Amino acid sequence: MRNKIVYLVAFLLLGSLVWYLFIKPYDYSVSITSKTFPGTINQSIKSWGNANKNTVLLEERDFLNIDQQFKFNDSTYLYQWKITPVNDSTSKIKVYIKDVDHSLGNRLIIPFFDTGFEKRTKRTILDFNNALTEHLEKFKVTVLDTLQQLPDTYCAYIPIKASQFGKAKGMMQNYPILSTVLVDNNVELNGRPFLEITDWNREVDSISYNFCYPIIKSDSLPQNGIIKYKKFEGLRAIKAIYNGNYITSDRAWYALLDYANKNGMEVWERPVEVFFSNPNIGGNELDWIAEIYMPLKE
Length: 298
Known about the structure:
By secondary structure, the protein is α+β, with helices and mostly antiparallel strands. It is 31% helix and 38% strand. It folds into 2 domains: 23-137, Alpha-D-Glucose-1,6-Bisphosphate, Chain A, domain 4; 142-295, Regulatory factor, effector binding domain (Multidrug-efflux Transporter 1 Regulator Bmrr, Chain A). It has helices at 2-23, 38-50, 103-109, 116-136, 167-184, 251-262; strands spanning 28-34, 55-62, 65-72, 75-87, 90-99, 139-150, 153-163, 194-201, 206-214, 228-232, 235-244, 272-275, 289-295. The longest helix has 22 residues, at 2-23.
């Protein structure tokens, strides 16, 4: 009986060693807890990676799982990010890291020494965490716990295609065209500028949207081949208040999707943003206000 126990223990130890050295899919792992929702983390991982010229997005297996590749001198690191929502305001991030070219050597050394691989990984994850923390300090999203009704309105608009990150740039480029033509032709304005998303491809973070200005309909609206006119159909929606730079107002989209999911609501992923601040004036970005609506399926 004693020999059987010894053999079993030896087999388990050998099996664990083989798994650790040759089967385990990563060399090192790090955990982070962040007080935000998964959408912000998803976008932050990708924007942080895009800012690093040595980083490539390999695959976004789904919204909560992202694979990146990092180049450090003669080493290629694979980062696998897994995002897990904990509650309404907190998410856990688990990062699995593998040195593609020196994996076995790292696994042999890591239990006994503080390796260069570990030090570099810790610095990289710390850099990301600092960037995420800094980003979270620059905006605020408040989801309202009541349904809202957006009214019908007639509007002048310019259709635009862009990345999510490029949304605000597209607005800034077209705002002078829209506002100048309307003012110069004495078109009567009838509300605040807004945009409506007409297509949102979350797999590649691309959007199509109409940048709109509510106006009073008349028979003498200016025609220039760029500006179009239509009736914006009102809708019932869930609503959030966004404070911050409009470049990242899509953070409120994800907050509303989370809210809808947790409350069993079906929504169209075609948010509407109504802008109450003029970014050209500057000032504290946390004082900028936008109302964000996510239409309900009815």
